[in-house]
Amino acid sequence: MSTAILERLKTLEIQSPDTPLKDSLLLGFDTETTGTYAGKDAIVSASLVLRDPQTSYAGDTVAEWIIAPGIPMNPLASKVNGFTDDFLEAHGAEQKTAILEIAGTIVQAQLKNIPLLAYNAPFDVDMLNGDLRRIGRAPIVTEINDADTDNFLTGTQRELIVADPLVIDRAVSKRSGRRTLTDTTYYYGVQPHGSFHDATADTVAAVDLIEPICAAYPQAGVITVAGLMDWQRNAHETWKEQFNAYLESQGRPPVRDSWFPVQR
């Protein structure tokens, strides 16, 4: 794993909470996994991409991991992401080391007020939290608070700051149709750097979405880092209410999940 992101983070000032999304540094995150169940399945590939909007893709700093998960690949997941048990055993890093590196990088970015960006972010964060529990560590938000000595002294609790292009796009664009990462990047004219279902290519594609979304819908671009989580929670609840009305009309069960609910 490259330590370039950590080294770059050390050189950065703490980002103002008033920074608008269109001007914010972002830490993109994506995973490929053995399956879809956090805690039961595990991460086999991950990437983090530190993006400065002033330099865009050309200035990205990237870290990548291939991880030996210690459990077999689900055949359906293997068909999607191309990873096999033999390949991961031969080329994967030790799970505990890799997961701690990923979490540690996210923690340092959060302490600089740099949002973690992921498309359908609850999935990737839940998978990371599942692997953290597997190696005997706390969820990522606890790791952040444990590392924040300033807030420890004041008793203030941080939350994980996340930017989710899926949630933002649903809120501002009322188009019909599918909103997979592939579909959404095509809609906004984002050209992929590599193949989808490659963790790094997916991370870059997700980060690349922010600029055209903010250009097309200026109301998204002015969301501040401080207001990002509440804005997205409200957006998700509005989408869920509308989507559930549609599901009810089709005789289908409702969606019940929340988007990063506030921890009390």
From TrEMBL:
InterPro entries associated with the record: Ribonucl_H, RNaseH-like_sf, RNaseH_sf
Domain Exonuclease, chain residue ranges per copy: 25-219
A Pfam cross-reference name: RNase_T
GO molecular function: exonuclease activity; nucleic acid binding
Protein name (database record): Exonuclease domain-containing protein
Native source species: Scardovia wiggsiae F0424
